[in-house]
Amino acid sequence: MAEQNNMLEMTQGNNSLGKVEIAPEVIEVIAGIAANEVEGIAQMRGNFATGVVEKLGKKNHGKGVKVELSEESFKIDIYCMVKFGLSIPKVAQEVQDNIRQALMNMTALEADEVNIHVVGVTFESAKADEVTQEA
Known about the structure:
4 helices; four-stranded mixed β-sheet; 39% helix; three-stranded antiparallel β-sheet; 29% strand
């Protein structure tokens, strides 16, 4: 794997057909989808622009994901909110494992770091339970 012009190059065996380059945005999308698959992740944190784009109907799968490239490696930062009542370390570990597995399966690349930043806790399920109990 080598970084050239903000692209990740896959070097896997002796393949004389050519080279494969992967844009960091592809890594962001894969990591975002893998993180959202984990039970316990309420939502990913985005910025104002991603919120506006989603209101217009386009889903941004890279929301809350930041990929940093260096000479021979890359690291991923995930910004998410966790559902109330769950173990944050356990959910974070599951997110890390799911992202590493998805990246390995889809790109044969392995991130040096997958950092999880829990920026909040949501109480959505607790509110839904209160509403059903009152009725």
